[in-house]
Write a structure and sequence with these properties.
Helix content is about 0%, strand content about 15%. By secondary structure, it is mainly β. The chain has a domain at about 1-60: Rubrerythrin, domain 2 (Single Sheet). Strands 2-1-3 form a three-stranded antiparallel β-sheet, with no helix packed on it. Strand 1 (about 5-10) and strand 2 (about 15-20) form a beta hairpin. The protein is elongated, with a radius of gyration of 27 Å. The chain starts with a strand and ends in a 51-residue tail after the last strand.
């Protein structure tokens, strides 16, 4: 069930309401009692995966190598190259 955001056009009161998609929009402001509510268009929410059964490489990021515990980085980080046409100072 989604969470909808509402704002009252009369008093400016803003609130969120957890309701089913099939329910009618709210019309009466709980703060001032006027029939002046407007449902705001929200961005929605992302998909949230909860529980076991998901692979470590489903999320690419800093810990993406967790899917293969035998491979480890042993080399030092690469050095930055000097800009073209300029010699590196020592």
């Amino acid at each position: 069930m989604p969470t909808y955001e509402y704002v009252c056009k009369h008093c400016g009161y803003e609130f969120e309401k957890f309701q089913q998609m099939t329910e009618d929009h709210l019309k009466t402001c709980p703060e001032c009692g006027k029939d002046a509510l407007k449902r705001k268009i929200g961005a929605g929410s992302g998909v949230i995966f909860v529980g076991s059964g998901f692979y470590c490489n489903d999320y690419k990021g800093a810990n993406a190598s967790l899917g293969n515990p035998t491979s480890k980085k042993t080399s030092a980080p690469a050095k930055k190259a000097a800009p073209a046409g300029k010699a590196a100072k020592k």
